[in-house]
Amino acid sequence: MQEHLDDILARIRPLEPIELQLLDAQGCLLVEDVTVPAALPPFDNSSMDGYAVRVADVAGASEEFPAVLTVVGEVAAGSSELPAVGPGEAVRIMTGAPLPPGAEAVVPVEWTDGGKGGAPADAMTAGEQQAGGEVRVHRPAAARAHVRARGSDVAAGEIALSAGTVLGPAQIGLLAAIGRATVPVRPRPRVVVLSTGSELVPPGEPLAAGQIHDSNSFMLTACARDAGAIAYRVGAVDDDAASFRATLEDQLVRADAVVTTGGVSVGAYDVVKEALTQLSGAEGSVAFRRLAMQPGKPQGFGRLGPEGIPLFALPGNPVSAYVSFELFVRPALRALMGLAPTAGREPVRARLTSRVGSSPKGRRQYLRGSYADGKVETVGGSGSHLVKALADANALVVVPEETTSLAAGAEVDVILLDRSAS
Q1: Is beta strand 45-46 parallel, antiparallel or unpaired with respect to 182-186?
Q2: Region of poorest pLDDT, from 28-42, 95-109, 272-286, 319-333
Q3: Using omega within 30 degrees of 0 as the cis cutoff, is the peptide bond preceding 120 cis?
Q4: Distance CA 331, CA 352 (A)
Q5: 11 by DSSP, 3-state: which?
């Protein structure tokens, strides 16, 4: 298994960087340092609704002996005309508004009577008429109190984000705040997911005798999106090698990677293996292996077309396809994005709370498990068709190749499928 993954990763190269709009860049890897063009915030501004004042004018103020100031204007967020604050004066100011000239601090409206006389105010309404044009301040304010200084977040010329940063919501917010509309990143890979089988019917359509609903293509498309890719699901292809080849050729033009499911074993209708083993030369090549693992023994990987698009040929049983994606496809997609391939899927140790009765010697088994607080319980059996057990699991329990059974209480490696479980 490790050899198969190593072979895959050795043949994967990160996608070329492109310039993307901010929201399109979410989840992508930044490829260049981003410097701050201008200080953030770009000017001194108020962190409170209140009054801009001079410190000396409110020194010693109290409810019993308030400082009485003349209100000479108002400043709202976005104001460009700023009235000056002179001795004995105050300017009504809103959160985020520029600090007017002459002001040294801001007193919150709750420290004042709001210009109405009487008890302390609990709110301020823009444009409200002031009784006598005066405000009574009931508490002193230190210099720069409730003032956000220019450049207190980041200064001009500083590095806002370093190359190698994965852009999440907070990073997108910072880029927008410093005025960047686009950034150079390694894009999310476009992944085409294609299932094969003449028995497959889309969900929502009635089943005839011998038919089943196509769950794999939906599951693997969701897996690819969960891994950070842009995924496209293609309808199931019948068990016909020519039809499969034609569909695949049509899809390569929009793919950075292709994932197929089904048709890779030794059956008479395993058309994926039949079609892809015929490739050679400029068309690419796909090699098939039988790995010492359960589920997911048959695997195929290669590169197709003149662009060398990676193709992952996964087994058709749902659990086999899911486990194969987690072990081999997810790391490759992360590598295409320039990310650490196995980050987030490193095994953790857990105490087994249920017994594993049998495991095939010579194969590494991946059982579905429910993990919490350092303990894990197996969910369902080992059958690779048990979709309900897969849906109930949040982890894979790893049973080593030479281990044929495990008692309750044994320590095992666990791969967490839901990191919130840790």
Answers
A1: unpaired
A2: 272-286
A3: no
A4: 27
A5: coil
3-state secondary structure of 391: helix
Three-state DSSP at 170 gives: helix
The whole-angstrom distance between residue 135's C-alpha and the CA centroid of its chain comes to 49
Pairing of strands 257-261, 190-196: parallel
pLDDT digits (tens, 9 = 90+) for 343-398: 989 999 999 999 998 899 999 999 999 999 999 999 987 777 778 999 999 999 99
pLDDT at 420: 60
Q: Which amino acid is at 390?
A: L
Tokens encoding 284: 């690419």
Cα–Cα distance between 366 and 293 in angstroms, integer?
A: 8
**In this structure, what DSSP letter does residue 256 have?**
S
Which of 156, 165, 166, 184 shows the shortest CA–CA distance to 20?
184
Please check whether residue 301 is in contact with residue 328, taking contact to mean a CB–CB distance below 8 angstroms: yes
Q: Which of 364, 318, 312 is closest to 335 using CA atoms?
A: 312
Query: Can you tell me the distance from the alpha carbon of 132 to that of 414, in angstroms, rounded to the nearest whole number?
Result: 72
Task: Report the distance separating Cα 300 and Cα 321, nearest Å.
Answer: 12
Contact 183, 25 (CB under 8 A): yes
Angstrom distances, CA of residue 274 to CA of 192, 243, 286, 366, 369 = 20, 12, 11, 28, 35
- Does residue 272 carry a pLDDT above 90? no
Q: What's the CA gap between 261 and 325, in Å, rounded?
A: 10
Beta bridge partners of 309: 304
Task: Go through the chain and tell me how many residues it has.
Answer: 422
Q: Provide the pLDDT confidence category of residue 116 given band limits of 50, 70 and 90.
A: confident
Give a three-class secondary structure readout of 332-355. Answer: HHHHHCCCCCCCCCCCEEEEECCC
Among candidate residues 280, 210, 219, the one with its CA nearest the CA of residue 239: 210
**pLDDT tens, position by position, 154-193:** 999 999 999 999 999 999 999 999 999 999 999 999 999 9
Q: Which CA distances in Å does 324 have to 128, 180, 189, 422?
A: 66, 39, 18, 22
